[in-house]
Amino acid sequence: MSLEEKTWGAEHIVLESLAPDDKPVPIKISFHDPKDMGIDASRIGTKGCEFIVAANALNDGKIPSVMLETAKEIQGTMYYQVYFWIGYQIIDGRPVKCIPDGMEIPEVFPRLLLYHSTKEFSHLARILP
Predict the structure, then answer these.
(1) Which residue of 12, 17, 31, 55 could cross-link 22, Cys pair, CB 3.0 to 4.6 Å?
(2) What is the rounded CA–CA span in Å between residue 5 and residue 104?
């Protein structure tokens, strides 16, 4: 079983802070086989997509999102990218809106995800092989 396959089907409840000096909040992250999330699996492991991590996430039980993390090499440099689709989950390979009609995502939420991602990525070199 590949390292990637070991995460597929795993569900984690993690404590993450999304803002400076914020208390951590629980986030449920459900990792999936990328092809089950609608990703063309034939592209994974190619120059354009070295790997991909695909998950549905639920921030403190309030704001659903889809998270994709991927890396690709461009001119000898590895680029690590993260994408979020806020207000959605991928269910049976299809995007499903998971917030009620009329609900507004707080304007600050995307900026908090950017802050969190920047903070987390700055630590990756210390924890990854």
Answers:
(1) 17
(2) 35
Distance from C-alpha of 88 to C-alpha of 66, rounded to nearest angstrom: 6
Q: Which residue has the tokens 């986030």?
A: 27
Q: Is the pTM of this model over 0.85?
A: no
DSSP the chain: --HHHHHTT-EEEEEE--STTPPPEEEEEEEE-GGGGT--GGGTTBTTBSEEEEEEEEETTTEEEEEEEEEEEETTEEEEEEEEEETEEEETTEEEE-S-TT----TTHHHHHHHHHHHHHHHHHHH--
The range of the structural domain enclosing residue 97 comes to: 3-127
Beta 25-32 vs 51-59: how paired, if at all?
Answer: antiparallel
As for how many domains the chain has, the answer is: 1
Distance linking the first and last C-alpha atoms of the chain: 19
